[in-house]
Design brief:
two-stranded parallel sheet; about 15% strand; about 50% helix; single chain; alpha+beta
Length: about 90
């Protein structure tokens, strides 16, 4: 996601004529994605909508029952904490 945000910052001036955008990501990325995009586009007037598209391998209601689910969600919470600390949110 870091590369995607760096790319968005680079093209931000090109999308400022947009009125709205839909951001689609994995459900476990949704919180950090929302915070990041809201931070990047703050004051732009662009209305952002966010959607968590479920994948077949991670059941959001039972992720803790799978080793991969615990790994992915645990890592995402670590990334979320890092983002909050480093961006003062």
């Amino acid at each position: 996601m870091g590369h995607a945000i760096a790319g968005w910052r680079g093209v931000k001036r090109n999308v400022l004529s947009w009125h709205s955008a839909i951001v689609v990501t994995s459900p476990y990325h949704l919180r950090r994605t929302r915070m990041t995009f809201n931070n990047v586009f703050r004051g732009s007037g662009i209305r952002l909508s966010f959607y968590g598209a479920e994948g077949p391998w991670l059941d959001p209601t039972r992720w803790w029952l799978q080793d991969r689910g615990m790994e992915v969600v645990g890592l995402e919470y670590f990334k979320l904490a890092w983002y909050v600390i480093h961006n003062g949110i």
